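Batch manifest, entry 17 of 40.
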Amino acid sequence: MTSAFAKPPAKCVSAAFKDQVKLQDAVQRLLNRGVPKERISIVGRNFQSEARITGFLTKKDVILDGLASGAFYGSLFGSVLSLLTGVGVLFIPFLGAVVAAGPLAAALLGATSGALYGALGAGLGSALMSLGMPQDKAAIYQTRVQAGEFLLVVEVPDEKSGETFLLLQSAGGEEVAITEMQIPQESDGEMTGRDQISPEIRADLSTEAQQTFLETYNQTLSESSEKSNALMKAWERIKQLFERDDKGIFSKRKADNNQKDSGTS
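Output type: structure tokens
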């Protein structure tokens, strides 16, 4: 039997939660109702971590360190975050270090949209507005997250928005809203151009290095179909062939690779 959530999402239902226990209960209820975890996003400052976070983790850091696994995230953050996809830590103006998970996390990390990546510089509210959330709700959610609460966003088909609204409300959600917000999704297939490389990654690569990253990513993806593996292999290739210049950009060809660049190893 086909799930009602198999249809493409048309609405976003969002709510603020004052504590992590209620948030986890809401996420579990959504999953029990058949909502795919890939359509659930959360953002918050005060998650109870099971390990001390030193500095900031970004998507790039995770790829560089070879830590792109759910097991790592589950052991680091525990509880509700281990239920979702794409967990990361990023720095947002006015909020500081924020933990985010799900498709919204990928978007906030600049993984899908250069415009959104720029909006993030003005704060969480501006980023939400750039995705289509009404200004009043975006401002409320930014204030709530800043105060230590949690934002939950669920992408659902139009006909499921009403029942999802009631579910979040009954789970203790506040400022529950149904909006036309659209969260951009990363392509699971090959990248067709350098502009599809995540902005935070692209900024650290020269034009030549970007092309190398793109070619290695696509080749690895065609062989393994594992996106995280393709990203790690692409970074490994960059570190093998290039070194950073005085601005920290991978642009200088390593001497011992000038004559023997024979494709990915």
